[in-house]
Amino acid sequence: ISRVCENCGHLLPTSWKGCEFCEGRGYLKRDPCEKCRGLKLSSWVLKSRLCGYSLEDLLEMDISTFSQVLKKKLSEESFKALVEDLGRKLSLAEKFLDAKLCLSTPVFRLTTGQKKAIELLLLFSNPVSGCLYILDEPTLGIDVNLREVLLDLLKSLVKKGNGVIVVEHDP
Using CB atoms within 10 A of its CB, is residue 102 exposed (0-12), middle (13-18) or buried (19+)? Predict the structure, then answer.
């Protein structure tokens, strides 16, 4: 892997170094760090560029805007491998989460439903087969309209050769 961006020549970060001021904790006592503004990374990592944007700019984008940036870059061959996996995950995120939710939103500001949706996104974004998924009340806190999306995703897990056991108390 090259340490230099093929398009603009900027150095790429090869490790994620935490903010020196807050030691990578972001928001101590629910107030964001003065230096990293809650993003938890050192200033040189935040200033690193990817797809023509600083990492700081990318993290401050909402899901919808970030998805549009990646879709534009998909047409460029050098970004194709990077963007395909992220694009798949973002399309799931757009179905499950508020598309205006900022990528850097601190966990303590998320609703119970948003936390549950992120949990499910992490589960569904892995392209594995031959696994047994046991889900305890996956609809807890999720909007009624999203339950059909969740059901479709569960069916897709089964189609990929996985087993699914759901413990649900809400009929």
Answer: middle
Residues 4 and 10 sit within 8 Å (Cβ to Cβ): yes
Residue listed under structure tokens 């935040």: 46
Amino acid identity, residue 88? R
Per-residue pLDDT tens over the stretch 80-98: 666 677 777 777 787 777 7
| Strand 49-50 to 163-167 pairing | unpaired
- Cα–Cα separations (whole angstroms), residue 150 to 20, 69, 101, 132: 40, 26, 19, 17
Tokens 């993290």 correspond to what residue? 59
Pairing of strands 163-167, 132-136: parallel
3-state helix, strand, coil in the chain (%, to 5): 45, 15, 45
d(CA 171, CA 158): 21
Question: What does the alpha-carbon distance between residue 39 and residue 94 come to, in Å, rounded to a whole number?
Answer: 22
The pLDDT of residue 165: 93
